[in-house]
């Protein structure tokens, strides 16, 4: 059922992890028989969603694989500079209509990735009107947390953000019991509203062929560490979706273990260390320093 609906390769998760998730679901549903649980899974979307959330435990953090964000920033700077140069050279008859950079985060989990993208673009000098970010995940509970934009220090792993950071407000959450003896109150990082509201979150399944069909294609797509959990059929369907959603000349970021899974003739591996990205069609990466080794050789 997991393979059919979400393309999950059980070997990528492990039989024991799936068994634990099933037992948890049976306890929560107060069911004694496995057959009853399976029957309920087929008719209850909420029960199936709970199973998926128990099986697929996301590993995410702000600026995970920082090299990808460093490259994104350089690529955006180069793109903006090229557009300005074209205007100055008179290659466009008149000033074109404002076209915000469009970015998509697939399997966005609790929001660390799309918010990292937003911060990266703002740090490069783009304004909030200069870009649009969509973020998709199958988990309703993960999306709820993402929309709240409240994070523990663990969301930053080895990175440190100080109180007063321009993108986060560090404070104790409302309602926390600060008077309980022996209690340890951990401050939380509250993302500022202007950044939090810049990302549009959507619940969806990458195996849905109609996913984001009514949206314009994207300049940049992040789909990292998702394909490795799929069987081959689900990978093929997802790659077809990614190709539909990405503009010619656009960037596709994948996980470090997924670079060999993108077997499309017009996709070129970006020669920038530790980036793990492809560019659709052969568009020169003018102004960017090329690495002497491929991403795979850097691992």
Q: What does it look like?
A:
This protein is an alpha/beta fold. It has two domains: 54 residues, no CATH class; 194 residues, Vaccinia Virus protein VP39 (Rossmann fold, 3-Layer(aba) Sandwich). 37% of the residues lie in helices and 16% in strands. Strands 6-2-1-7-8-10-9 form a seven-stranded mixed beta sheet. Strands 3-5-4 form a three-stranded antiparallel beta sheet. A hairpin with a 7-residue loop joins strand 9 and strand 10. Helix 4 crosses helix 5. It starts with a helix and ends with a helix. The C terminus is likely disordered.
List keywords for this structure.
299 residues; alpha/beta; Rossmann fold; 2 domains; 3-stranded antiparallel β-sheet; 11 helices; disordered C terminus
CATH architecture of the largest domain: 3-Layer(aba) Sandwich
CATH superfamily of the largest domain: Vaccinia Virus protein VP39
What ranges have pLDDT less than 50 throughout 5 or more consecutive residues?
A: 289-299
Work out the helicity level: 25-40%
Short description:
Helices cover 37% and strands 16% of the residues.
Topology diagram in text:
Elements: H1 2-6, H2 10-13, H3 15-28, H4 34-43, H5 45-55, H6 66-88, E1 101-106, H7 112-123, E2 131-137, H8 140-148, E3 150-151, E4 168-171, E5 188-191, H9 193-196, E6 199-203, E7 218-222, H10 232-245, E8 246-253, E9 267-269, E10 277-280, H11 295-298
Parallel strand pairs: 1-2, 1-7, 2-6, 7-8
Antiparallel strand pairs: 3-5, 4-5, 8-10, 9-10
């Amino acid at each position: 059922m997991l393979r059919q609906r979400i393309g999950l390769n059980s070997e990528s998760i492990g039989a024991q992890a799936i068994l634990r998730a099933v037992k948890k679901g049976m306890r929560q549903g107060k069911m004694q028989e496995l057959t009853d649980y399976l029957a309920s899974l087929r008719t209850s979307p909420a029960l199936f969603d709970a199973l998926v959330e128990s099986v697929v435990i996301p590993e995410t953090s702000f600026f995970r694989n920082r090299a990808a964000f460093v490259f994104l920033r350089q690529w955006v700077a180069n793109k903006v500079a090229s557009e300005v140069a074209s205007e100055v050279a008179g290659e466009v008859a008149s000033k074109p209509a404002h076209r915000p950079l469009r970015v998509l985060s697939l399997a966005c989990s609790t929001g660390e990735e799309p918010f990292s993208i937003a911060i990266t673009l703002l740090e490069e000098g783009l304004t909030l009107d200069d870009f649009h970010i969509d973020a998709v995940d199958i988990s309703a509970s993960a999306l709820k947390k993402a929309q709240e934009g409240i994070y523990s220090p663990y969301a930053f792993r080895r990175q440190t953000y100080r109180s007063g950071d321009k993108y986060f407000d560090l404070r104790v959450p409302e309602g926390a019991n600060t008077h309980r003896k022996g209690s340890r109150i951990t401050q939380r990082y509250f993302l500022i509203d202007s950044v939090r509201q810049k990302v549009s979150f959507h619940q969806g399944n990458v195996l849905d062929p109609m996913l984001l069909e009514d949206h314009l294609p994207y300049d940049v797509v992040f789909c990292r560490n998702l394909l490795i959990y799929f069987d081959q059929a689900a990978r093929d369907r997802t790659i077809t979706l990614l190709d539909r959603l990405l503009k010619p000349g656009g960037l596709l970021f994948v996980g470090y273990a997924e670079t060999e899974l993108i077997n499309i003739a017009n996709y070129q591996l970006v020669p920038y260390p530790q980036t793990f990205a492809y560019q659709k069609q052969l568009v020169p990466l003018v102004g960017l320093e090329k690495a002497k080794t491929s991403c795979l050789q850097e691992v």
